[in-house]
Amino acid sequence: MNIPVLAFVHDDRYWVIMPASAQLRGLAISRSVEGLQPLGAAKYYDVKPVWAKSKARPDFVQRLAELGMNPMAPAASTEMRAQWAALQATVDGDRDFLSREGSDDAPLIDYSLLFEVYAPGRRVDVRGRNCIEAPSCFDEDPATCHVLCLSIIDFFTKFSFKRRLESWWKRFKFHNYAQKTKDLFECQFSQRFPSPETSSANGGNLTMGPINGLPGAVRVVANVRWVIGGYRVSTCKPYLDMACDFAVSGTIRKGDCSSLKPRYCYEMICTFQVKARYVDHCGSWMQEWCQDQLNEYNKAKMLK
Q1: Domain carrying residue 91
Q2: Which of these three, 189, 214, 230, is where a domain ends?
Q3: Cα–Cα dist 63/68, whole Å
Q4: Beta-bridge partner residues of 205
Q5: What is the pTM of this model?
Protein backbone atom coordinates (compact mmCIF):
# COMPACT_ATOMS: atom_id res chain seq x y z
CA MET A 1 0.00 0.00 0.00
CA ASN A 2 3.06 2.25 0.05
CA ILE A 3 5.45 3.07 -2.79
CA PRO A 4 9.01 3.76 -1.53
CA VAL A 5 11.23 6.45 -2.98
CA LEU A 6 14.40 4.88 -1.56
CA ALA A 7 15.11 1.71 0.46
CA PHE A 8 18.39 0.62 2.03
CA VAL A 9 20.03 -1.29 4.92
CA HIS A 10 22.14 0.50 7.53
CA ASP A 11 23.53 -0.97 10.78
CA ASP A 12 21.51 -4.15 10.16
CA ARG A 13 18.29 -2.13 10.09
CA TYR A 14 15.95 -1.62 7.17
CA TRP A 15 15.12 1.91 6.11
CA VAL A 16 12.47 3.07 3.66
CA ILE A 17 11.97 6.68 2.59
CA MET A 18 8.48 7.52 1.38
CA PRO A 19 6.89 10.81 0.35
CA ALA A 20 3.93 12.18 2.28
CA SER A 21 1.10 9.79 1.54
CA ALA A 22 -1.44 12.35 0.37
CA GLN A 23 0.98 13.92 -2.11
CA LEU A 24 1.95 10.53 -3.53
CA ARG A 25 -1.71 9.63 -3.89
CA GLY A 26 -2.29 12.98 -5.59
CA LEU A 27 0.55 12.28 -8.02
CA ALA A 28 -0.93 8.86 -8.84
CA ILE A 29 -4.35 10.41 -9.50
CA SER A 30 -3.33 13.55 -11.40
CA ARG A 31 -0.10 12.17 -12.95
CA SER A 32 1.34 15.65 -12.62
CA VAL A 33 3.53 17.36 -10.03
CA GLU A 34 1.31 20.40 -10.58
CA GLY A 35 -1.70 18.63 -9.09
CA LEU A 36 -0.60 16.95 -5.87
CA GLN A 37 -3.90 17.64 -4.07
CA PRO A 38 -6.67 16.61 -6.48
CA LEU A 39 -8.85 15.58 -3.52
CA GLY A 40 -8.03 18.69 -1.51
CA ALA A 41 -6.18 18.84 1.80
CA ALA A 42 -5.98 15.71 3.96
CA LYS A 43 -6.71 15.27 7.66
CA TYR A 44 -4.35 12.55 8.95
CA TYR A 45 -5.02 9.94 11.64
CA ASP A 46 -2.08 7.71 12.66
CA VAL A 47 -3.92 4.85 14.38
CA LYS A 48 -2.78 1.68 16.17
CA PRO A 49 -4.92 -1.06 17.76
CA VAL A 50 -5.58 -1.34 21.49
CA TRP A 51 -3.60 -1.55 23.67
CA ALA A 52 -0.75 0.10 21.77
CA LYS A 53 -0.41 3.82 22.42
CA SER A 54 -2.27 5.83 19.79
CA LYS A 55 -3.15 9.47 20.43
CA ALA A 56 -5.25 9.80 17.27
CA ARG A 57 -7.38 6.69 17.85
CA PRO A 58 -10.33 8.24 19.78
CA ASP A 59 -10.66 11.17 17.38
CA PHE A 60 -10.55 8.85 14.37
CA VAL A 61 -13.24 6.39 15.51
CA GLN A 62 -15.51 9.31 16.42
CA ARG A 63 -14.91 10.93 13.05
CA LEU A 64 -15.70 7.70 11.24
CA ALA A 65 -18.97 7.35 13.13
CA GLU A 66 -19.88 10.93 12.13
CA LEU A 67 -19.20 10.17 8.46
CA GLY A 68 -21.51 7.13 8.58
CA MET A 69 -19.19 4.80 6.66
CA ASN A 70 -21.09 1.57 7.31
CA PRO A 71 -20.72 -0.55 4.15
CA MET A 72 -22.36 -3.54 5.88
CA ALA A 73 -25.53 -1.61 6.78
CA PRO A 74 -28.71 -2.36 4.78
CA ALA A 75 -28.82 1.17 3.33
CA ALA A 76 -25.26 1.03 1.98
CA SER A 77 -25.01 1.35 -1.77
CA THR A 78 -23.67 -1.43 -3.96
CA GLU A 79 -20.79 0.81 -5.01
CA MET A 80 -19.77 1.51 -1.41
CA ARG A 81 -19.80 -2.21 -0.65
CA ALA A 82 -17.60 -2.85 -3.67
CA GLN A 83 -15.15 -0.16 -2.52
CA TRP A 84 -15.08 -1.71 0.95
CA ALA A 85 -14.46 -5.22 -0.42
CA ALA A 86 -11.52 -3.99 -2.53
CA LEU A 87 -10.01 -2.03 0.38
CA GLN A 88 -10.47 -4.93 2.77
CA ALA A 89 -8.76 -7.37 0.41
CA THR A 90 -5.76 -5.07 -0.02
CA VAL A 91 -5.35 -4.45 3.71
CA ASP A 92 -5.73 -8.17 4.49
CA GLY A 93 -3.03 -9.06 1.98
CA ASP A 94 -0.57 -6.48 3.31
CA ARG A 95 -1.27 -7.36 6.93
CA ASP A 96 -0.80 -11.08 6.26
CA PHE A 97 2.51 -10.30 4.54
CA LEU A 98 3.73 -8.34 7.57
CA SER A 99 2.70 -11.10 9.98
CA ARG A 100 4.77 -13.75 8.17
CA GLU A 101 7.61 -11.66 6.74
CA GLY A 102 9.46 -11.60 10.07
CA SER A 103 8.77 -15.33 10.64
CA ASP A 104 6.63 -16.88 13.39
CA ASP A 105 9.32 -16.11 15.96
CA ALA A 106 9.66 -12.45 15.05
CA PRO A 107 6.81 -11.10 12.90
CA LEU A 108 6.67 -7.40 12.13
CA ILE A 109 4.74 -5.36 14.71
CA ASP A 110 3.96 -1.83 15.93
CA TYR A 111 2.96 -0.54 12.50
CA SER A 112 0.14 1.97 12.08
CA LEU A 113 -2.83 2.41 9.83
CA LEU A 114 -2.57 5.91 8.40
CA PHE A 115 -6.05 7.17 7.51
CA GLU A 116 -6.52 10.26 5.37
CA VAL A 117 -9.88 12.05 5.30
CA TYR A 118 -10.61 14.35 2.36
CA ALA A 119 -13.54 16.66 1.64
CA PRO A 120 -13.44 17.10 -2.16
CA GLY A 121 -17.04 18.32 -2.29
CA ARG A 122 -17.77 16.12 -5.33
CA ARG A 123 -17.64 12.54 -6.55
CA VAL A 124 -14.13 11.33 -7.33
CA ASP A 125 -12.68 8.20 -8.88
CA VAL A 126 -11.26 6.06 -6.03
CA ARG A 127 -10.75 2.82 -7.94
CA GLY A 128 -7.43 1.18 -7.14
CA ARG A 129 -6.42 3.90 -4.69
CA ASN A 130 -7.20 2.20 -1.37
CA CYS A 131 -10.07 4.59 -0.63
CA ILE A 132 -13.76 4.46 0.25
CA GLU A 133 -16.42 7.15 -0.11
CA ALA A 134 -18.89 8.27 2.57
CA PRO A 135 -22.66 7.95 1.89
CA SER A 136 -22.81 11.71 1.21
CA CYS A 137 -20.81 11.13 -1.98
CA PHE A 138 -23.69 9.11 -3.43
CA ASP A 139 -26.32 11.82 -2.89
CA GLU A 140 -27.78 13.77 -5.79
CA ASP A 141 -25.80 16.78 -4.59
CA PRO A 142 -22.45 15.44 -3.25
CA ALA A 143 -21.31 18.83 -1.94
CA THR A 144 -20.54 17.29 1.49
CA CYS A 145 -18.73 14.28 0.01
CA HIS A 146 -15.91 12.87 2.16
CA VAL A 147 -13.34 10.28 1.09
CA LEU A 148 -11.29 8.03 3.38
CA CYS A 149 -7.97 6.59 2.14
CA LEU A 150 -5.56 4.26 3.88
CA SER A 151 -1.87 3.34 4.01
CA ILE A 152 0.20 1.13 6.33
CA ILE A 153 3.28 2.84 7.77
CA ASP A 154 6.23 2.18 10.13
CA PHE A 155 6.33 -1.56 9.51
CA PHE A 156 9.92 -2.70 10.16
CA THR A 157 9.85 -3.43 13.90
CA LYS A 158 10.37 -7.14 14.67
CA PHE A 159 8.75 -8.94 17.57
CA SER A 160 12.12 -9.57 19.22
CA PHE A 161 12.77 -10.85 22.73
CA LYS A 162 13.03 -7.27 23.99
CA ARG A 163 9.70 -6.39 22.38
CA ARG A 164 8.11 -9.48 23.90
CA LEU A 165 9.14 -8.34 27.36
CA GLU A 166 7.74 -4.88 26.65
CA SER A 167 4.52 -6.42 25.35
CA TRP A 168 4.12 -8.63 28.40
CA TRP A 169 4.65 -5.62 30.69
CA LYS A 170 2.19 -3.42 28.78
CA ARG A 171 -0.96 -5.57 28.64
CA PHE A 172 0.34 -7.80 25.78
CA LYS A 173 0.10 -4.90 23.36
CA PHE A 174 2.24 -6.56 20.65
CA HIS A 175 0.95 -10.13 21.01
CA ASN A 176 -1.25 -11.14 18.04
CA TYR A 177 -0.59 -7.70 16.56
CA ALA A 178 -1.80 -8.63 13.07
CA GLN A 179 -5.16 -9.85 14.42
CA LYS A 180 -5.51 -6.74 16.59
CA THR A 181 -4.89 -4.58 13.53
CA LYS A 182 -7.55 -6.54 11.66
CA ASP A 183 -9.99 -5.93 14.53
CA LEU A 184 -9.20 -2.20 14.57
CA PHE A 185 -9.83 -1.95 10.85
CA GLU A 186 -12.89 -4.16 10.47
CA CYS A 187 -14.72 -3.11 13.64
CA GLN A 188 -15.09 0.39 12.23
CA PHE A 189 -16.68 -0.74 8.96
CA SER A 190 -18.73 -3.79 9.96
CA GLN A 191 -21.36 -2.15 12.18
CA ARG A 192 -25.08 -2.30 11.47
CA PHE A 193 -28.20 -2.09 13.62
CA PRO A 194 -28.71 -5.66 14.90
CA SER A 195 -31.53 -7.69 13.42
CA PRO A 196 -34.07 -9.30 15.80
CA GLU A 197 -32.34 -12.65 15.26
CA THR A 198 -28.92 -11.21 16.15
CA SER A 199 -30.26 -9.39 19.21
CA SER A 200 -31.97 -12.54 20.48
CA ALA A 201 -28.80 -14.59 20.00
CA ASN A 202 -26.91 -12.02 22.07
CA GLY A 203 -29.32 -12.35 24.99
CA GLY A 204 -32.05 -9.76 24.47
CA ASN A 205 -33.84 -7.57 21.97
CA LEU A 206 -33.37 -4.10 20.52
CA THR A 207 -36.10 -1.83 19.16
CA MET A 208 -36.00 1.60 17.55
CA GLY A 209 -38.54 4.37 16.99
CA PRO A 210 -38.83 8.12 16.33
CA ILE A 211 -38.93 10.78 19.05
CA ASN A 212 -41.78 13.28 18.73
CA GLY A 213 -40.52 16.83 18.47
CA LEU A 214 -36.92 15.80 17.80
CA PRO A 215 -36.43 15.33 14.06
CA GLY A 216 -33.27 13.45 13.21
CA ALA A 217 -33.20 11.67 16.58
CA VAL A 218 -34.43 8.18 17.47
CA ARG A 219 -35.14 6.25 20.64
CA VAL A 220 -33.53 2.85 21.01
CA VAL A 221 -34.68 0.44 23.73
CA ALA A 222 -32.47 -2.49 24.72
CA ASN A 223 -33.95 -5.32 26.78
CA VAL A 224 -31.26 -7.73 27.98
CA ARG A 225 -31.13 -10.81 30.18
CA TRP A 226 -28.46 -11.75 32.71
CA VAL A 227 -25.91 -14.24 31.47
CA ILE A 228 -24.99 -16.16 34.62
CA GLY A 229 -21.22 -16.44 34.80
CA GLY A 230 -20.75 -13.26 32.79
CA TYR A 231 -20.99 -12.44 29.12
CA ARG A 232 -18.06 -12.34 26.70
CA VAL A 233 -17.02 -8.79 25.86
CA SER A 234 -16.92 -8.27 22.10
CA THR A 235 -13.67 -7.51 20.29
CA CYS A 236 -15.12 -4.26 18.98
CA LYS A 237 -16.27 -2.85 22.33
CA PRO A 238 -13.12 -0.78 23.10
CA TYR A 239 -13.44 1.00 19.75
CA LEU A 240 -17.20 1.45 19.97
CA ASP A 241 -16.82 2.85 23.49
CA MET A 242 -14.71 5.64 21.97
CA ALA A 243 -17.04 6.17 19.02
CA CYS A 244 -20.42 5.98 20.75
CA ASP A 245 -19.97 7.27 24.29
CA PHE A 246 -20.11 10.86 23.04
CA ALA A 247 -23.00 10.28 20.61
CA VAL A 248 -25.53 8.41 22.77
CA SER A 249 -27.38 9.41 25.94
CA GLY A 250 -29.30 6.81 27.91
CA THR A 251 -31.27 5.88 31.01
CA ILE A 252 -31.56 2.55 32.81
CA ARG A 253 -34.51 0.74 34.36
CA LYS A 254 -33.61 -2.44 36.19
CA GLY A 255 -36.37 -4.56 34.72
CA ASP A 256 -37.62 -7.20 37.13
CA CYS A 257 -35.69 -5.54 40.00
CA SER A 258 -37.69 -2.32 39.87
CA SER A 259 -40.49 -3.49 42.17
CA LEU A 260 -39.65 -6.99 43.43
CA LYS A 261 -36.10 -6.10 44.53
CA PRO A 262 -34.69 -9.65 44.56
CA ARG A 263 -31.01 -10.29 45.29
CA TYR A 264 -30.15 -10.40 41.58
CA CYS A 265 -31.63 -8.82 38.47
CA TYR A 266 -32.30 -11.16 35.57
CA GLU A 267 -33.47 -8.45 33.18
CA MET A 268 -32.52 -4.85 32.45
CA ILE A 269 -34.05 -2.25 30.14
CA CYS A 270 -31.95 0.61 28.80
CA THR A 271 -33.42 3.49 26.80
CA PHE A 272 -31.16 5.55 24.56
CA GLN A 273 -31.55 8.75 22.61
CA VAL A 274 -29.28 8.99 19.58
CA LYS A 275 -29.03 10.90 16.33
CA ALA A 276 -30.22 8.77 13.42
CA ARG A 277 -26.85 8.87 11.66
CA TYR A 278 -25.24 6.95 14.55
CA VAL A 279 -27.82 4.17 14.76
CA ASP A 280 -26.05 1.65 12.54
CA HIS A 281 -22.62 2.34 13.98
CA CYS A 282 -23.73 2.21 17.63
CA GLY A 283 -26.68 -0.22 17.61
CA SER A 284 -24.78 -3.31 18.78
CA TRP A 285 -22.84 -1.17 21.27
CA MET A 286 -26.06 -0.01 22.94
CA GLN A 287 -27.18 -3.58 23.50
CA GLU A 288 -23.76 -4.60 24.83
CA TRP A 289 -23.57 -1.51 27.04
CA CYS A 290 -26.87 -2.48 28.65
CA GLN A 291 -25.66 -6.08 29.05
CA ASP A 292 -22.50 -4.81 30.73
CA GLN A 293 -24.52 -2.66 33.16
CA LEU A 294 -26.61 -5.68 34.17
CA ASN A 295 -23.53 -7.83 34.59
CA GLU A 296 -21.78 -5.21 36.76
CA TYR A 297 -24.92 -4.73 38.88
CA ASN A 298 -25.13 -8.42 39.69
CA LYS A 299 -21.38 -8.70 40.19
CA ALA A 300 -21.58 -5.99 42.85
CA LYS A 301 -24.42 -7.90 44.53
CA MET A 302 -22.27 -11.03 44.69
CA LEU A 303 -19.50 -9.17 46.49
CA LYS A 304 -21.77 -7.97 49.29
Answers
A1: 6-189
A2: 189
A3: 9
A4: 223
A5: 0.84
